[in-house]
UniProtKB/TrEMBL annotation:
Keyword set, alphabetical order: Heme, Iron, Membrane, Metal-binding, Monooxygenase, Oxidoreductase, Transmembrane, Transmembrane helix
Name of the protein in its database record: Cytochrome P450
Protein's UniProt keywords contain Iron: yes
Binding site for heme: C433
Location of the protein in the cell: Membrane
Organism: Aquilegia coerulea (Rocky mountain columbine)
Region (Disordered): 1-22
Length: 497
């Protein structure tokens, strides 16, 4: 018997699984997660290490918390972990996994991703939309100027501006307004509510995903809410697409695609691919990705950057020196000024090191069994890359909890777009963010101009220490309390009009 056991073991050696906390029956380790799961997982990683295995209900989850482990999953074995798990949010809020964010790895995802990279996010296309970004930015800065001397809630202005910038590039500017009109189906505030609801529902722990026999009961009511918010988005996109189609087929006019949705509709009409057809449903899913992927993430990054600058007068003074030297006082910061503004760039990197809109990358999913760093990871394991933890890793960052943009100056080669695994705000590899060029153009010019164009005065009784740095969790993580602050113009008045 002893011999046959030894032979069995040699043929099927026991699996070496990553260390981790002991799961409880039924719930697994779910009870160990707080409302900010990235922080709970960060604390667990201090005990169990840079790669650990947990159970979320009956599902196996592996968490990577160091640059080395992120590289294992996103580069060394990228082909194995390039899928997404089939969670309810992808089914009910991602057009049944047809949007690119939630699509499983395969021909449909590959096709959508190729369209983004070769048709939507090319430098030529992004340059062609620069005039829209300039116009929207000036509207935003003029709106703030109109409130000079009064406290304003910055978040409201930033959100409105990022939504109008992205939606004008994707859809045109006629579908939103303060109130519903003939052409605007929803008001801006309603659309923001829809985005908020979508973000919350894409960030929640939906019990039915983890304990499948409870799925049909929808105990938390999340699936019902997912269906309701998706219906609202779908009605909106149906309207927008019908409107663009009508414009496209106007008799006697030569159609030239103007917005991103036009490009997608043209591709859909010309598509002769027998394997994966770009249907109208798929076009809606791609539009949905662009609208949802771009607005909140960029706005939250701008907000965190402003909070950090205002808390650090020394950083603000150095940024102002750079602005006055490179831009002067007679014009606004433009996109082509970026290469001359290394300190602004360092501030944005430092903000994204500490305050990621997505503190953990969207979940990855093992397509097959794989050995990672000596551990056996089974097919269908869900992988979380904790980039919040990675940005604070003491082996890679001195004073990891301090806000020090200077760390990115003086010969630092650290890149934030996926080549360097110590800083992963946009992920890396096959599933890395396709929209990062657009996002960085928006964030850099907005932050630069907000400090170039205005002094920011705290309302009476408020000090820089009162600025909220507490995180509120959803799919994206923003400051719990938005800042209210008084703008004071610092450039010649004609520039604000
Ligand atoms: C500061 C702004 C942004 C941040 C921090 C950000 C971050 C991310 C992250 C972390 C991922 C997941 C990467 C992974 O799973 O490995 C992602 C994916 C994605 N992002 Fe962004 N993003 C931003 C802006 C944008 C913009 C402007 C767009 C489009 C308009 C966009 C569209 C997408 C899409 C479609 C995906 C899914 C890619 C896939 O699964 O293949 N993002 N983004």
């Amino acid at each position: 018997m002893v011999i046959s056991k030894k032979v069995r073991e040699r043929r099927n050696p026991p699996k070496r699984i990553p260390p981790g906390p002991k799961p409880w029956p039924i719930v697994g380790n779910l009870h160990q997660l707080s409302s900010l799961p990235h922080k709970s997982l960060h604390l667990l990683a201090q005990k169990y290490g840079e790669i650990m295995q947990l159970k979320y209900g009956s599902r196996t989850v592996v968490v990577a918390s160091s640059p080395k482990m992120a590289e294992e999953f996103l580069k060394t074995h990228d082909n194995v972990f390039a899928s997404r798990p089939p969670l309810a949010s992808g089914k009910y809020t991602g057009y049944n996994y047809q949007d690119i964010t939630w699509a499983p790895y395969g021909p449909h995802w590959r096709k959508g991703r190729k369209i983004y990279l070769t048709e939507i996010f090319t430098l030529k296309r992004l340059d062609s939309f620069e005039s829209i970004r300039v116009e929207e930015r000036l509207n935003f800065l003029s709106g703030i100027y109109a409130e000079s001397g009064n406290p304003i809630v910055l978040r409201n202005h930033i959100r409105r501006y990022t939504l109008s910038s992205i939606s004008r590039m994707v859809l045109s500017d006629k579908y939103f307004s303060d109130h519903k009109t003939d052409t605007s189906l929803v008001s801006i505030s309603e659309f923001h509510e829809m985005i908020d609801e979508w973000m919350v529902l894409n960030g929640v722990l939906n019990i039915g995903d983890w304990i499948p026999w409870l799925r049909n009961f929808d105990l938390q009511g999340y699936v019902k809410r997912m269906k309701a918010v998706s219906d609202k988005f779908d009605a909106f996109y149906n309207y927008v697409i019908a409107d663009h189609m009508a414009k496209k087929h106007l008799p006697g006019k030569n159609f030239v695609p103007k917005e991103m949705v036009d490009v997608l509709l043209q591709l859909s009409e010309d598509d002769i691919d027998p394997e994966v057809k770009l249907t109208l449903e798929a076009v809606k899913a791609l539009v949905h990705d662009l609208m949802l992927g771009g607005t909140d993430t960029s706005g939250i990054t701008i907000e965190w950057t402003i909070h950090e600058i205002l808390r650090h007068p020394r950083v603000l003074a150095t940024l102002r020196e750079e602005l006055d030297k490179v831009i002067g006082r007679e014009r606004w910061v433009q996109e082509n000024d970026f290469p001359q503004m290394p300190y602004l760039e360092a501030i944005i990197k430092e903000t994204l090191r500490l305050h990621l809109p997505s503190p953990m990358l969207a979940p990855h999913f093992a397509l097959e069994d794989c050995n990672v760093a000596g551990y056996d990871i089974s097919k269908e394991t869900i992988i979380f890359i904790n980039s919040w933890s990675i940005g604070r890793h003491p082996d890679h960052w001195d004073d990891p909890y301090e806000f020090k943009p200077e760390r990115f100056l003086q010969g630092s080669e650290i890149n934030m777009t996926g080549q360097d695994f110590t800083l992963l705000p946009f992920g890396s590899g096959r599933r890395g963010c396709p929209g990062y060029t657009l996002a960085l153009r928006l964030v850099r010019t907005t932050v630069g101009n907000m400090f170039h164009g205005f002094n920011w005065i705290f309302p009476e009784g408020m000090r820089s220490e009162d600025i909220c740095m507490v995180e509120r969790f959803g799919l994206t993580t923003c400051p719990e309390v938005p800042i209210s602050i008084i703008p004071e113009p610092r450039l010649p008045i004609h520039l604000y009009k």
